[in-house]
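Feature request, filed as a ticket because there's no other form

It would be nice if the structure record came with a short human-readable summary line next to the tokens. Right now we just get the raw output. Example of a typical job, pasted below so the devs can see what we mean:
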Amino acid sequence: MSAGMGMGAGGPAAGAARAATGTRRALDAVMGRVAVTASDVGPRFPLYAEPDDGRWTTTGRGSWTGGFWAGLLWLRARYTGDEADRSAAAACTARLEPWVGADTATRGLILWYGTAPAGDDAGAAALRARAARAVLAAHDRELGIVPWGDALGGPRMLARVDGVPGTVSLLADAGAQGLVAAAAHLQRHLDLCLGANPPALRPALRFDAGAGWQPCEDPPPGWSRGRAWLLLAVADALLRPGLAAALSAARLDEALELLLRPGEFVVPAADSARPDGPLDTSAAAITAVALMKLARVPGPRAGRCADRAGAILSCLAESHVTGRGSGRPPGMLLDGCYDAGKGLAVRHELIWGDFFLALGLAALHGVVDITRV
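Raw output as currently delivered:
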């Protein structure tokens, strides 16, 4: 038996130990990076950072990514146990309040991920409850979805995959009516976004009163985060027995078969139609979290999902997170791609990539319960 196949220095036990050490080192570095970022951006919200020096481009109100910054601050507070870190996280979360009344399905991304990592914090829980009621009020029963909305510009009547994760969880927390709306919102997006023949992902569709739902050109079908966002929403639904029971089991199974295609690269291309183009580590981090959640769902996929999640997190930790002596600030998750088509921030550190990597690593090392975020 070769060393690579045995239990010696090069065997599985040693490999697992190295992976555990590497992911713990990455968690420490990423949490340290959160503190540096907080000092750099002050009351603003970080969006993406230059890969060479870590300098952040920021927004004043947070845009669709503001909740990920608040969520990162909560993860750091849970990691350190420091009251000052809790206070900083709470203050940032409070600044998300204007988004409660905004007409956008990205309230799920903003107000679920900006509050769920807070645990038992009363202020975050109250904001999340208000957001759940507001999103439920926006649910269009005839169309079966919470429309994309016009708060971020563009046409309002869209169904987009990035309007599903977080939104499903918010709706499911809004009582019996919310549970019905959550099931309808997810089911409708699965039918629309995976309803091509032959089956293929359509990340966004626009509703036309005459022609019905029509696919959009942007984001393109090969958009890396399209698959990741939808997989995350399905995983969240399956962790809620009441919600999962309200969905078509056959449709969920079909969706997972498509979304969990084997043989894909651990870190995908930002656009699968451009395999030689930029990568997107943020899509990989989202996928890892979704897989960790699916690994908590009893069934034949659980073990494979756990293994694949671990492989992604190890790859990101070992090959894409900056370390000390790299000439860059340590703890940056590089090779994220904001928008490949526009050439915007194509190899950068992205705040949502940081969040999902930190969430995955924190769950891996027992800092947070992945089923509750």
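Something like this underneath would help us a lot:
The CA atoms of residues 341 and 368 lie 35 Å apart.
The longest strand covers residues 45-49.
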